[in-house]
Amino acid sequence: MKLLRVGLPIAALLLGSASVEASTVGVQGVPQLDVYWQNGTVPGAPIRTAGSIQLAVDEEGNFAAFNQTFTWGLGAEQDTITLQLASGNLDPFLNFAVGFVDSGAASIFTVVFSSPIAPTITGLANYTLDLAGSFSNGSPNNGGSLAMAAPNTLGVLEAQLNGTSIDGIGTAASFAALVSSVYGPFGSSGTFDCSGLGGCTTMSTRLAFLGSGGSDAYSYTGRFEITAVPVPAAVWLFGSALGLMGVMRRKLAS
Length: 254
Known about the structure:
Order of helices and strands: EEEEEEEEEEEEEEEH
Oligomer: single chain
Strand content: over 45%
Structural class: mainly beta
Largest sheet: 9 strands, antiparallel
Distance between the termini: 63 Å
Helix content: under 10%
Shape: elongated
Low-confidence stretches: 1-27, 233-238
């Protein structure tokens, strides 16, 4: 399923909005967080936009948002998504802490946190991706579960560069009744070649999962950080020497 991101004003809440397709492509030049909701009991149910915020960037490239609440549905079916924290820096990392209450029937939640990268990374980049969480039983106290949900295929949390998923962590899980359970922690790291994308200009995290309804509560914290791999000084010196030799040859030839 392809997702199409919808950019909206700060703290815009689109209750009752038309269905949308969800994605991370096309960051609007500023860090942005988008929240999507989908009925988890109806196959092919439309994806709805529950809300979106854009984050202001300071002179040092930092950005942060706190304590934003989004809701979807009415009465006993009203689900709540609470963003405790979304922060990061253009040079470049993303942090988030978000909680969900899945009331009534099971729902699918997707949270996309995206940011430009400045400066652009043109070569190799090392990255780390981390996820931890917890689960609390709702009513009735009969246990619960979480499952992976489309569009994610690599894990409950996926890391993306230029809208391309490069890694994912987090698995399906079941939780016992009458207890609060820990989820994770999960972690992954690796190296990605940004030259294959023409340079890495945007980074995103996409958290997507199917809850179990019944007012079960889920809480997650995550972090995605990338670091450009420096070109060794010897390589630069070697390249400079080759260039100088070329100039000397041309001078001798003339």
